């Protein structure tokens, strides 16, 4: 049986790092990302809710085999095929987990920056395909799982990438002198940040965090 260690280990590893990592990101990109006062405090909010996020993610159901690194550079489309077959490579991070993790990872890393804010339509399409193929899973449950998965990926991105980067690194990405789909442009970074703040507020407004406090 596969073990899903990607999410759990990254959450634990980031538990003491996200506040420091976000503060470094704000320090390095405050002007470029147009950091607001509320955004400035995001690191503290993520750190205070990290255990809740981990608990929520570990209890997401149903589970299935996931890719774990589902981004555009790991996807090939056979244009010579009449049905345009799609192939995924690089399965070293595959394991048992929630399908929303792959969906969130793909949208955060691989869709156009202007599409990130309109990702609801993409996620809705994915959910419709699931239900059309006999998976009984409510839209509300799937969307919440997507929000939790998105937030976890954002934490990983901040700690592993943004916090160790400088403004000059963005120019290298633009020139394709550095590899990395986690940061394509300032616009991409801002859209990831905006979505994360929206999703955190959604979870705070729901009863989901309150439920974890009773565990």
TrEMBL record:
Coiled coil: none annotated. InterPro entries: EcKL (IPR004119), Kinase-like_dom_sf (IPR011009). This is CHK kinase-like domain-containing protein. It comes from Rotaria socialis. The lineage of its organism: Eukaryota, Metazoa, Spiralia, Gnathifera, Rotifera.
């Amino acid at each position: 049986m596969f073990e899903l260690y990607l999410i759990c280990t990254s959450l634990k590893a980031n538990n003491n790092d996200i506040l420091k990592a976000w503060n470094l990101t704000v320090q390095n990109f405050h002007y470029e990302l147009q950091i607001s006062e509320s955004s400035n405090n995001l690191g503290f909010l993520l750190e205070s809710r990290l255990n809740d996020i981990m608990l929520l993610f570990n209890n997401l159901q149903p589970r299935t085999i996931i890719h774990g690194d589902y981004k555009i550079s790991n996807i090939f489309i056979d244009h010579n095929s009449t049905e345009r077959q799609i192939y995924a490579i690089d399965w070293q991070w595959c394991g048992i987990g929630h399908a929303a993790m792959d969906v969130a990872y793909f949208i955060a890393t691989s869709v156009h920056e202007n599409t990130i804010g309109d990702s609801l339509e993409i996620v809705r399409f994915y959910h419709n395909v699931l239900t059309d193929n006999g998976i009984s899973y409510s839209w509300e449950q799937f969307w919440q799982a997507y929000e939790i998965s998105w937030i976890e990926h954002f934490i990983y991105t901040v700690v592993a990438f943004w916090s160790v980067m400088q403004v000059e690194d963005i120019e290298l990405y633009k020139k394709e002198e550095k590899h990395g789909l986690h940061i394509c442009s300032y616009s991409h970074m801002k859209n990831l940040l905006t979505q994360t703040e929206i999703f955190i507020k959604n979870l705070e407004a729901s009863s989901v965090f309150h439920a974890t406090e009773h565990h």
